[in-house]
Structure formats: C-alpha cells, structure tokens
Design goal:
2 strands, two-stranded parallel sheet, about 0% strand, about 200 residues, mainly alpha
Length: about 200
C-alpha cells in the first residue's frame, strides 16, 4: 500500500502528540504559535527520489526517536519527588524538541530537492516551514515552563497542562501536513517513501 509523504508525517506527529501528559488538572488551551520565520530560499541540487526518500526517512526517524525519548524522560522526571528536578525535566523536553527539530530542518536542506515533477526546492522549504511550527511551539512552551513555581502545590498539574498544550499544538501542526499532498503530489516519491521508511 502506498504511503504518501503527508500521511507519514501526520501519522507520526499525531503519535508523538499522544505521548505523556496524562495527569493533572485541565487547563485552557491556546492555539499553536504561528511561525514568523521566513523559509530560507535555496536552490538545492535535484536528488533521485529513492535516494531522497532513504535520507529523509533516516532523518525523520531520528527526529521521532529523539522526541519520544525526551517525552519518556519528562514523564519520569514528573514522577520524581524533587519538584525542582521535575521542572528541569519538563524544560529539557521542550529544549530537546526544539533542538531535534532544528536539526531535522537542517538535514532536510542538506539532503537536497527530490527530483519530482514540479518544484522540489519548494517542497523542501514547505516541509521546513511546517517543522518550524514545532520549533515555535517548543520555544513558547519553554518560556511558559520557566515561569512555573516548583514550590506551588499545583506545580505538577501545571507542568502536565503545559505538556498537553504542547501536544495539542504538535497535533495541529501535524494535521497541517495534509497540505503537502495538495501542493506537491508525487506518486513516485510516495512509493519511494513507502519502501524506505520502516516506521
């Protein structure tokens, strides 16, 4: 069965968004931070779709692994009795999410443009812009966690609420990847991704 690039991105990001943050009081959720970053305009060398898919899947897999590991570490940190350590664990989650996504964006640009009908360069920059939404959400969450008071009786509930809000923002960004199929439809690239990605 063919897996489109957008389907892979949406499924993986929604899976990541479903991790952790299950405890604590509910909180009002705000929408995702809108990126003000302007995608870098580059002219990348066209890469065969099989080679592009292999390198993309490797970079995307590393990103997903890093975020999953960071989420598990944050969950463990929140279960600790040391509230200061719990705050550090939550801060580390958002920092890791931002760093890993910045690395993914750089990797996408390093891979080059896939040799598809249409504009492969624009596909790369559109993907980079979508992932920038993760960076913006993580950076905003980092600012919020810095304001948490570890001595407060509601600290853990507040920290879990921040994680849930971040997950919801991640899910919204993940849903937006559906736009990729509408603007960069490529059955050949989809087939290559289906073969190269094992997650």
């Amino acid at each position: 069965m063919r897996t489109s690039l957008a389907t892979l991105l949406v499924a993986t990001t929604l899976a990541l968004a479903g991790c952790g943050g299950s405890d604590g009081a509910a909180t009002t959720t705000t929408g995702p931070t809108t990126s003000t970053s302007t995608p870098t305009s580059t002219t990348t060398e066209a890469v065969g779709i099989e080679a592009w898919a292999t390198r993309f899947c490797a970079a995307f897999g590393d990103w997903g692994t890093a975020l999953s590991a960071a989420t598990k570490e944050a969950e463990a940190g929140l279960s600790a009795t040391d509230v200061a350590a719990s705050k550090e664990a939550v801060a580390a989650l958002f920092s890791a999410a931002s760093d890993a996504t910045e690395e993914l964006i750089a990797a996408l640009r390093d891979i080059g443009a896939p040799d598809i009908d249409g504009d492969g360069d624009t596909l790369v920059e559109d993907l980079a812009a979508k992932f920038q939404g993760f960076v913006d959400a993580a950076d905003a969450a980092s600012d919020d966690v810095a304001a948490l008071d570890p001595s407060s009786s509601t600290f853990k509930a507040d920290a879990n609420a921040l994680i849930r809000r971040f997950q919801e923002q991640v899910a919204e960004v993940g849903d937006s990847f559906a736009e990729i199929d509408r603007t960069h439809s490529s059955p050949g690239l989809d087939e290559a991704i289906s073969s190269a990605c094992d997650f």
